[in-house]
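Please, structure for the following, as tokens.
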Amino acid sequence: MKLLAFAASSSSKSINKNLATYAASLVSGATVEILDINDYEMPLFSQDKEEVLGQPDAAKAFYAKLGQADAIIISFAEHNGSYTAAYKNLFDWTSRIDQKLFQNKPMVLLATSPGPGGANTVLTAATGSAPYFAGDVKASLSVPSFYDNFDNEKQEISNLAILDQLKSAIAQLG
């Protein structure tokens, strides 16, 4: 299985990238590619910019990466209760290539934050909207209080109950 994983965050210190990377490592036998959405930076989307630029190569490349994967793991950072601007912009540009940008791929959607909410608000939005963009969401999981539940030294979930939930979610990828 070719597994694509990434954080919906542009932070170089993204805890969501840590979570996505760790989750991907739990998929036995998978060939894993970890993307950095900073590699797909584009101007802020608008119809005016689209008329001038057309479809940027970065959006086409991201769409192609999604298409080459057998399964996808995304971990969402939450900015003021919503998607990060960097992810939303990438999503907006890519959805103009094809509204079904997730291309019917099985997905596990994750989110985490330093606080007890675990970025659950953005995860709920992402889980609810993914099917409209041809995302086959197999499972989702919010990890609260990241620094209390993830061992940064070992780069793994330290809370056994959350680890069991994560393993169960990942197993849904088949």
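The chain has one domain: 2-171. The two ends are 9 Å apart (CA to CA).
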